[in-house]
Please model this.
Amino acid sequence: MSNLVDIIKISNIIVADRAREDYADIKDLTEKIRVRGLIQPIAVKELSGGKYLLLAGGRRLAACKRLVMETIPARVFPGDLTEVDEKEVELSENIDRKDLSLHERWKLEKAIHDLYMARAGGPKVSKAPGAPGHSLRDTAKLLGKSHQQIATHVMLATAMEESPEMKQALSRVKTDKDAIKVLRAANKIIEASENRKRVEAGYIPKVHKDLMEAFNIGDAFEGLSSVEDKSINILEIDPPYGIDLLHNKKSQTSAGVQNITTYEEVEESDYSEFIDRLLSIASTKLSEDGWLILWFAVQYYEMIKTAIENHGLIVCRTPGIWVKPQGQTNRPDTLLASCYESFFYARKANSKINKQGMKNTFLYNMVPPQFKVHPAERPIEMIECILQTFANPSSKIKVAVPFCGSGNTLLAAANLGMIGIGWDNSQQYKDAFVQRVVAGKPPNYKSYS
Model:
């Protein structure tokens, strides 16, 4: 493309819609141009009637207007410049500039890709050499970037174009990685909404529908109270720990993730009464050969053990222990990393362990952060092992799960052919559970891919 540098009138320059939207630090640039003059010309396309279309240099032009300059040095491109050529000029001007925003870069790269694809007659549908059309790989080669980078940027720019809400959400991110997390989280919300619509329309297989209906939105105390007395074979309870989880655990987001602020805690001063009320209901629901599995924070060992005994259950002093290969601590200068969680197992008089001789330790990895939907999520594989330690897998075994959170115990029970029922107040957790349900089927639900 031939071009020449000329001095043109600022009043003759037309500024159309461009990829660059945010002219950051315009005051600083204005002052530099006032002191040193304009070092790098803007780029324009020559139009009829002595007019010019701005191609690149909008920030420089804006600064010169602030200085009430009448003319400006410009690199003038001929009027027969194609739309693709125009975008190429703008891209070449801005692609390596540090002050081009992340979102402007996405928009500009997508515009280049779209224009080249249109000029080539559409997308490339074959990988054969010389195949017609234009692909993301072609755009990546043209811009000197990886195929993954261009694919990601085009996807993000498309999302911003198609949804005002997504544009607003993505406008706050600082990196491609954070943008992908936001996009994935939004897609999960959309998928959850679509899943609910399919359920309401009756388009869900019975095995999935039954599992979805096993996760009830509502109060755990009310739900458990509604269950028939002496009908539950395993009652797995993972109650709030009364330890202010919000300040003891770092929040993880990804459209991982999870938002820890949705986790409901119990005040430490109310915790003893909370546990006593819970066990007063739970103890009446266990069958004569039933087992209680109750996870607890170590500082409440004596209080919870005593409460279990006071409600007529036989509890082992030595708890079951989930041993994790990695530990966690928020105060590494004074505390060792904790790599275990404990649960009491308690029984009625006639209860017998199914897998006799099992150790009280369960060595399992944590759920990978990118797959977690709940801050205190435990792996399905471990829960399966615990369930069949205490009961022989069959459709006669009923598993109740107050505070079911991620719903992984319901999935583990389904894998073993057991019948599960659970309660939780969070629609967010149920939506995530529904996604997992429709993505697989028993006995193949897993936390580890």
